[in-house]
Write a sequence for this structure.
């Protein structure tokens, strides 16, 4: 089997298959296997959909048992045992321990569905049209979500004006000198700024697709305060950074903020099954019954694995602690590599197990990714020019596999720069 079917039948819109041009067949834990049985270490984790790895045996078991007993697969938003179990588990494991009073909306199966619901609801609650978003934000591909997304190439695909949003400078956009909260505050306060008061503000705590831009926690806290001061809803899109990617279940927990609306998707099902949530503070839960819906809101298979994953990983702090420790490991490894290959002019950035190298030469990230793939490591790039090499392994990846992946990045950087990798210590040595 070759890539022929994809090249001849699938639309030119296909993307990742071009960067990782093999046919995959099976997967387990942190590894994917192609049709020839070649193993690939996965430092991409389905864009953080697979935080607990591929085909987690416990989740798989729960799923097979549920299917085997003819458990309901699809149910729109009718009541089902699987959905009730998920809701109760989510309340017990996630909402209650964090003192979050939020109601749970099932907006449809994908992240962009969750964002659309959040934007519609903010407008409905506040009766204003605009939503404030940030430079380099990524919120999805449907028109509403795209209108609050920064990337010009992606926006261009809309084919019509993307309106009712205002893009503001994210944390650090003008460098350390300019406090962007003060900048936004001034625009909102000034009756001559030309900026309409928005219904809400949508933000990512770490802009993953935008190039791993990490917001300062104090900045997030002040953004929340700004929302309170100007009566705007504070919406956190935690679709990629939530479910433990930065350590805690929600990426905003450490900032001590309480968003009005929270978007979750990607790893919430835990198994790679489509599922999304929009979490809403009770006072803003003003939907009329059925005012927002979607045929695939009731993906019971996802509810089964999601509930099991919450029981497995979120009944204590063990996973969070491990993510923080492994995140520091990856950060140290990358730091070593940027020093070893000073010529790469790379800088390390990230939080938790979302870490990357920002290259001054934008093409370098893609070249390193290509070489890494040849050595059996799947690793993607992000940022407006694809200038950031983005490491995002499953959170359950072993220390040994993290070292193995970093070894491959070491080798790939040597090849990409065409320098002798023997100068300087191999990355693995810094952990001994
Ligand atoms: C992936 C992502 C989305 C969109 O999710 P889809 O499932 O692709 O629609 C939205 N926001 C963020 C931050 C994401 O990472």
């Amino acid at each position: 089997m070759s890539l022929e079917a994809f090249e001849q039948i699938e639309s030119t819109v296909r993307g990742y298959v071009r960067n990782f041009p093999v046919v995959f067949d099976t997967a387990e834990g942190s590894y994917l296997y192609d049709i020839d049985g070649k193993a690939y270490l996965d430092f991409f984790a389905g864009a953080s959909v697979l935080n607990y790895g591929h085909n987690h045996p416990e989740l798989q078991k729960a799923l097979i048992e549920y299917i085997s007993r003819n458990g309901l697969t699809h149910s729109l938003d009718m009541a089902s045992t699987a959905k009730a179990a998920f809701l109760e588990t989510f309340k017990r494991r996630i909402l209650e321990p964090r003192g979050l009073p939020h109601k749970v909306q099932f907006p449809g199966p994908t992240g962009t569905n969750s964002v659309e619901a959040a934007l519609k609801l903010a407008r409905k609650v506040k009766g204003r049209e605009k939503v404030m978003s940030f430079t380099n934000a990524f919120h999805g591909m449907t028109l509403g979500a795209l209108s609050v997304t920064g990337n010009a190439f992606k926006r261009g695909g809309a084919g019509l004006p993307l309106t009712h949003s205002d893009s503001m400078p994210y944390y650090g956009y003008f460098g350390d000198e300019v406090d962007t909260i003060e900048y936004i505050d001034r625009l909102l306060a000034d009756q001559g700024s030309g900026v309409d008061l928005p219904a809400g503000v949508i933000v990512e705590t770490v802009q993953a697709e935008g190039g791993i831009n990490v917001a300062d926690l104090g900045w997030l806290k002040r953004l929340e305060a700004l929302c309170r001061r100007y009566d705007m809803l504070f919406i956190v899109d935690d679709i990629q950074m939530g479910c433990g990617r930065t350590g805690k279940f929600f990426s905003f927990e450490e900032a001590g903020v309480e968003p009005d609306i929270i978007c979750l998707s990607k790893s919430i099902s835990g198994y790679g099954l489509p599922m999304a949530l929009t979490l809403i503070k009770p006072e803003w839960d003003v939907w009329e019954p059925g005012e927002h819906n979607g045929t695939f809101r009731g993906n019971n298979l996802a509810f089964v694995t999601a509930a099991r994953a919450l029981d497995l990983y979120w009944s204590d702090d063990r996973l969070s602690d491990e993510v923080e420790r492994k995140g520091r490991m990856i950060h140290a490894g990358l730091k070593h590599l940027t020093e070893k290959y000073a010529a790469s002019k790379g800088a390390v950035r990230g939080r938790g197990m979302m870490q990357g190298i920002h290259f001054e030469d934008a093409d370098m990230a893609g070249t390193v990714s290509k070489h890494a793939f040849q050595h059996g490591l799947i690793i993607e790039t992000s940022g407006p020019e694809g200038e950031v090499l983005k490491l995002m392994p499953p959170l359950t990846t072993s220390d040994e596999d993290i070292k193995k992946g970093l070894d491959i990045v070491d080798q790939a950087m040597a090849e990409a720069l065409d320098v002798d990798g023997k100068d300087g210590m191999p990355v693995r040595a810094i952990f001994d």
Residues 47, 110-112, 115, 138-140, 204, 208-209, 237, 239-240, 265 surround pyridoxal-5'-phosphate (CB under 6 Å). The longest helix spans residues 318-340. The mean pLDDT is 96. The chain is about 35% helix and 15% strand.
